[in-house]
Amino acid sequence: MNRPQLAVLNHLLAQQEGVRQRLAEHAGRRFRVELPPLGVSAVVLADGFAGQTDGEPEARVRLSSSLLVKRLTGGEPGAGDVQLDGDAELGLALARILADLRWDAVEDLSRVVGDVAAYRAERWLRGALGVKGEVAWRLASAYAEHLKEETPLLCKRTQVDAWHGQVDALRDDVARADKRLARLEALLAARLPAPTAE
């Protein structure tokens, strides 16, 4: 069911007290985090850990698989990598908390093989995966550039930012026009004689 994912989440929370304290501020709230094909539904306990729940989640945070790749290769997550449903305030707080959640693999490995061996294993793995991660990041960047330039399926960040600016300006213009219309209606209502009942 949900128990293995819940155990992993609580293990990560146990490694980071600061993150757990921030999560504890939402005690009693129900949430669901999905990273396909995995998902975990939980309720925030008073101590900041996640507990089993059968209730409907108040907020749902969906993480894209590309987010995991970006985190592993040192890339920056994009707006499309996280989708929030339900209570927006809770979802946003959970997304920020999850962004700060890290696995301390060296600590876990040191319990099995000792501190020195765990540190050496980490250095070796970082060195081995560092090259692969760099290659994967460069390939992904080149492919993304191809999608932006050669086959315009993706927008450049400057285009998206410009579009957001235009949407914001349009929203503000509509709000100003709505206020002007309301003032004109009030002015007209004050000048027109009241209808007489016959």
SSE topology sketch:
Layout: H1 3-15, H2 17-24, E1 30-35, E2 38-44, E3 50-51, E4 59-63, H3 65-73, E5 82-86, H4 88-99, H5 105-113, H6 115-149, H7 157-191
Helix pairs in contact: 5-6
Please provide a written account of the structure:
A hairpin with a 2-residue loop joins strand 1 (30-35) and strand 2 (38-44). A five-stranded mixed beta sheet has the order 3-2-1-4-5. With 198 residues, it is α+β, with helices and mostly antiparallel strands. The chain has helices spanning 3-15, 17-24, 65-73, 88-99, 105-113, 115-149, 157-191, and strands at 30-35, 38-44, 50-51, 59-63, 82-86.
Provide a short characterization of the protein structure:
It is built from seven helices and five strands, in the order ααββββαβαααα. Helices cover 61% and strands 13% of the residues. The chain is α+β, with helices and mostly antiparallel strands and 198 residues long.
Brief descriptors of the model:
5 strands; 5-stranded mixed beta sheet; 7 helices; 198 residues; alpha+beta
Percent of residues in helices:
55-70%
Strand order of the largest sheet: 3-2-1-4-5
| Helical run tally | 7
- Run of helices and strands: HHEEEEHEHHHH
Distance between the termini: 72 Å
Structural class, judged by helices and strands? alpha+beta
Q: What's the β-strand tally?
A: 5
List low-confidence stretches: none
Q: What is the alpha-carbon Rg in Å?
A: 25 Å
Tell me the major beta sheet.
5 strands, mixed
Strand content: 5-15%
Mean pLDDT: 76
Give the overall silhouette.
Answer: elongated
